Amino acid sequence: MATQGPIHDPNQSEDRMIDPRTGEFVVIAPGHNFRTVTQMIADIVLTDNTPLAWWGGLFVAATFAMMMVTAITWLVLKGVGIWGITIPGAWGFAIINFVWWIGIGHAGTLISAILLLFKQTWRNSINRFAEAMTIFAVCCAGLFPLLHVGRPWLGYWLLPYPNSMNVWPQFRSPLAWDVFAVSTYATISVVFWYIGMVPDFGTMRDRAKNPIAKTFYGVLSLGWRGSTRHWIRYESASLLLAGLSTPLVLSVHTTISFDFAVAAMAGWHTTIFPPYFVAGAVYSGFAMVLTLAIPIRKWYHLEDLVTERHLDNMAKVMLATGSIVAYGYGMEVFMSWYSGSHWEFFMMWNRMFGPMGWAYWVLILTNILIPQCTLWSRKLRVNVTWLFILSFIINIGMWFERFVIVVTSLYRDYLPSSWGTYRATKWDYMLFIGTWGFFTFLFLLFARIAPMIPMSEIRMMLPQTKVRPGGADAEVVTQEAL
Amino acid sequence: MPIQEGVYGLLAEFNTPSDLVHATEMAHRAGYRRMECYTPYPVEEAAEALRFHKTRVPLMCLCGAVMGLVTGYGLEMWVNIWGYPLNIRGMPLFSWPAFVIPGYEWTILFAGLSAAFGMLAQNGLPQLYHPLFNAPNFANGATTDKFFLCLEAYDPKFDRAATRTFLEQFSPVSVVEVDL
Fold it and tell me: What domains are defined for chain B?
């Protein structure tokens, strides 16, 4: 059975995505077997012909990444004074972009860990590149606070280690918590991602014809040979890592929200921040997964593996988390009135109608109005073009959310004599846009080198995996049922 | 020591997981113990047939978690109470709620690394060379779409001819001898 080619059943012509036997949605398009799914995924990487579009994309991305390198070099030479940060607006782009990037990363962990625990098998098609997205987003995110400390070459002072100055980090500060949260998050994400790829690297090693590629994947696969005892331990470790990543991802954005919530600043000092930050992170992260998944499935013809149902499910997750975010915005407005605090009230008034009020309304438009008006319709949820556009709109909206939170609370605080304003400089923009290039650069390399979709997990979703006691004879029944 | 010099074992190739599980079960009933299945994805029924149930990965993970918690929280306590005491906002030196997050993160960090590297260590990986890679049909199947059962020469019941006959009754695609 495993050797037969794709089957085209005329009974399935009405809706390919409905299983005729059970009437349930199928996640993978019918007509695939272990070999065809393996080929579909592995051949993207193992081809000798690198598409010209890939080189073009890499060139553009590398150009932008060079812009980032330039911006960092100048920053190291001149200091953070080249940025728009001043007193009172001392956080600016560095923190906005940090929170934005790390929020994007969270969807990857959500997909790989939380959806695994909930046995949502549809995640299998998208978890690998969502995890890659997490890691590359964390790389970009980590840059910002590191550069924001002013002397990034002394960044290791943030870590607790015995030193000749005889000083230690201050563990009561949320900024020290951040160091632990983000470094743990980065480490565990990389380990989870790599462990997930080990069996697939084994497949790549066995399929590669080029001796260099064979050695390369052979070393990366650590000699994986698919032994059953190995698989059982492997599954156990994967499940444990998923179980650990779930509280981790929630704690990371909670800790980031504490950077704000612990400070006695109007607009920041609220208990709603942790859940609302986590929901916002997942919201923007799923938008980014769509931004990446839609072109990838198109270019690499993976529509059978990343199906309409995946897009629909992701849109539903965005709808749910978007609604939580909308609730968060509503509560902030309500509490600023209900608290009876003059400062809170002024902060909200200033946020809506002050000199930077436009940013608040952009945020409401892009994060609430447009998604809420369109995502409730199934027709639009499976409209690939609209989802692609919407994913950009939401990411812009989530960037503005962090802009509004960071800037409007800081630039007009309690004392009118200390009010200021905030204006980003060209170096801020160069660094931010440069990180997009850096992110795309890393992602393109990943798409060329590693299997983008976990092959072993896709194989597990095929109907051929069903084991009939008694062996081959029982298999005939399965084959007929197919 | 291998009873048969120069032979790692006999490798039977199957097209379906059902055939593999059936053959494995029968081999176990026939008294073979030194054997292993090789599949392109985890087949739990094969592990059942091999009577392989328990892994020590969760225990290693738990040890890592406890170690991380003790290390993280202990470090914070030592730094804040003895190593570098600071009066921050008049909080007590042992202000335990503020220490929760770094302790929690290190719990997860140590537990995750223990689970991942513990799994690799128990699997004996990395091991870039293995005799099975000598089998001509192994590479094209074991990580793609074929299911293998290897009865190893270490097994006291192993006998070149008899074991081959035993395996052939399950109508495998092929039975090949794997050189050591």
Answer: 7-54+133-179 (3.30.70), 57-122 (no CATH)
The dihedral over CA atoms of B117, B119, B122, B127, expressed in degrees to the nearest 10, equals -70
CB distance B113 to B65 below 8 Å: no
What value of ipTM does the predicted structure carry? 0.91
Query: Position of tokens 């392989």?
Result: B52
Spatial contact of A107 and A135, defined as CB atoms under 8 Å apart: no
The one-letter amino acid at A111: I
- Alpha-carbon span A447 to A47, nearest angstrom: 12
B13, B43, B105, best to mutate vs chain A, most A CBs in 10 Å: B105
pLDDT, tens digit (0-9, with 9 covering 90-100), for B39-78: 888 888 888 888 888 888 999 999 999 999 999 999 999 9
Q: Do B116 and A192 touch (CB under 8 A)?
A: yes
Which residue type does B33 have?
R
Report which residue type is found at A90: A
Tell if the CB–CB gap between A1 and B75 is shorter than 8 Å: no
Look at residues B49, B4, B72 and name the one whose alpha carbon lies nearest to residue B147: B49
Contacts A190 to B, Cβ<8 Å: none
Give me B85's structure tokens.
């005491």
Q: Which domains does chain A have, with CATH numbers?
A: 34-461 (1.20.1630.10)
